[in-house]
From TrEMBL:
The chain crosses the membrane at residues 13-31, 37-58. GO terms for molecular function: endonuclease activity. Keywords: Endonuclease, Hydrolase, Membrane, Nuclease, Transmembrane, Transmembrane helix. SUPFAM superfamilies: Restriction endonuclease-like. This is Restriction endonuclease. It comes from the Bacteria. Gene3D superfamilies: 3.40.1350.10. InterPro entries: Restrct_endonuc-II-like (IPR011335), Restrct_endonuc_IV_Mrr (IPR007560), tRNA_endonuc-like_dom_sf (IPR011856), Type_IV_Methyl-Rstrct_Enzyme (IPR052906). Residues 77-183 form the Restriction endonuclease type IV Mrr domain. It comes from Paenibacillus sepulcri.
Length: 195
């Protein structure tokens, strides 16, 4: 997961660096040929606008791809991809979504909001059931992020102890079955795996 995050950071730095380089080249080239700062600034602004449009197009394509996914696709995702996918699912349900790097080495969390209510979401893609440690982390995240409640979303299930602990705290558990329901709301043609 650390390798994937490093790759994503490298892509972001490369993208911004390329934009900065193109803006500088456009500005200098235009200024050297026209001797006008106004024309040079317009050329540089054009490059920035083009980058923004391309970035919006790429984001839109990712959202369209996410809308066509099903639970089988989630099973082969890495943790960061699962977090991004959940962001798309919550956006489709009308939530605003903010991705935050967790203070520990636990990856990232989502802060979702709707109707003035903020919720911290922990995404856990596991092959086994989630235990009480995750519920304790979710409970601590409520105070840390100053939100009303915490949700834990997984593509598996929860242990009985985790379920009991979550019920006595402001932690909502969203196991595989409820996740599939969310996916079907977004993509009614999604394949439902046999039980």
């Amino acid at each position: 997961m650390a390798r994937r995050k490093s790759w994503m950071i490298l892509q972001e730095i490369t993208s911004r660096g390329l934009m900065g380089l193109l803006v500088a080249v456009a500005f200098l080239l235009t200024y050297s040929t026209t001797k006008s700062i106004v024309y040079a600034a317009v050329a540089a602004g054009f490059i920035v606008i083009c980058f923004i449009i391309v970035h919006m197009f790429i984001r839109k394509r990712k959202e369209e791809n996410a809308a066509g996914m099903d639970i089988a696709d989630i099973s082969i995702m890495e943790g960061s991809q699962f977090e991004q996918y959940l962001g798309y699912l919550f956006k489709a349900q009308g939530y605003s979504v903010e991705v935050i790097q967790a203070p520990s080495d636990e990856g990232t969390v989502l802060i979702i909001a709707k109707g003035g209510r903020k919720i911290v979401v922990q995404a856990k893609r596991h092959t086994s059931n989630i235990g009480i440690k995750t519920i304790q982390e979710a409970q601590a995240a409520i105070a840390h992020y100053g939100v009303a409640e915490a949700w834990v979303v997984t593509d598996s299930g929860f242990t009985e102890a985790a379920d009991t602990l979550a019920k006595s705290n402001a932690v909502r558990l969203i196991p595989r079955e409820q996740l599939m329901e969310m996916i079907l709301e977004l993509n009614p043609e999604a394949a439902i795996p046999p039980k």
